[in-house]
Write a structure and sequence with these properties.
This protein is of the alpha/beta class. The protein has helices spanning 16-20, 48-63, 95-111, 127-140, 158-161, 164-169, 175-184, 220-223, 237-259, and strands at residues 29-34, 70-72, 116-121, 145-150. The mean pLDDT is 96.
Length: 265
């Protein structure tokens, strides 16, 4: 049941009596992995975001020193994925449902005495909801620290591994995600079906952008026929191994910093 999470770090294996007698629960870090179940082109499975999140988190937790008390909750495999509507297999929660789940998980943890929660999000379609929920939880519980973190924003060696074009336009199922999946679940990757597809470019001097400071709301069908937004044909297991290792090292540091984060006054 713990999958990639070290068993001693898996919240689901704790007994209620162990939690009830746990000292200094206000400093224990609880991590809620947030993934998705959505299309990732013809060459990748639906589970990509969740698999990458759990892969990175599991390796990060294995790097933590034993005295750093941190536990991962079971992954939430469904997220807000309606940008992929029209591609078979995508399962999406509404924004309100997803938001409510985050608040109710936080309520339960707070009642159990925990005061530090990381929302460890690995799906690019929902950081805004996670950030809004975290702010509202903080407003409700003034002694509860909530960290709305997105996996890919952590420092990594990604700029050394991917092309400049891929870094700018490889938004989904491209080189980075495909490489990490070749590292984590190579038997589920069908490279023979991988194809490059970048979104159509706006005019050169246009202030609007697909992603950036002045974006427009788009659905994947607006900018991709295959569901791929990037170039997975250049992916490799070697790149995936390096990227996974780099991300895990950063996330181990982030979790430790949350553990050492000062209490509310």
């Amino acid at each position: 049941m713990h999958q990639t999470i070290p068993p001693e770090r898996f919240f689901g294996y704790l007994k209620w009596t162990e939690i009830d007698s746990m000292p200094h629960r206000e400093n224990v870090v609880i991590i809620q992995p947030l993934g998705a179940l959505e299309q990732h082109g013809p060459h990748l499975p639906l589970i990509v975001d969740s698999a990458i999140g759990l892969g990175v988190l599991g390796k990060a937790l294995s790097l933590l020193e034993k005295q750093v008390e941190a536990y991962a909750l079971p992954c939430l495999y469904y997220g807000k994925s309606n940008e992929h509507a029209g591609f078979a297999g995508t399962i999406s929660l509404t924004s309100q449902t997803f938001y409510n789940i985050l608040l109710e998980v936080a309520d339960s943890l707070y009642q159990a005495g925990f005061r530090k929660l990381i929302f460890f999000n690995s799906h690019g379609g929902q950081p805004q909801i996670v950030e809004t929920a975290a702010r509202d939880i903080r407003h409700k519980y003034r002694d509860f620290w909530v960290f709305p973190h997105f996996l890919w924003r952590a420092p990594s060696n990604i700029k050394e591994l991917l092309s400049s074009e891929e870094l700018e336009y490889g938004l989904h199922a491209g080189d980075g995600e495909t490489s990490v999946m070749l590292s984590l679940l190579p038997e589920q990757v069908k490279m023979s079906l991988a194809s490059r597809e970048y979104p159509p470019q706006l005019t050169q001097n246009n202030l609007l952008s697909i992603e950036g400071d002045l974006p427009f709301a788009w659905l994947t069908r607006d900018i991709s026929q295959t569901g791929v937004i990037g170039d997975p044909t250049t992916a490799s297991k070697e790149k995936g191994d390096l990227l996974l290792q780099s991300l895990a090292k950063s996330w181990a540091q982030i979790i430790q910093e949350v553990y050492e984060f000062p209490k509310a006054h």
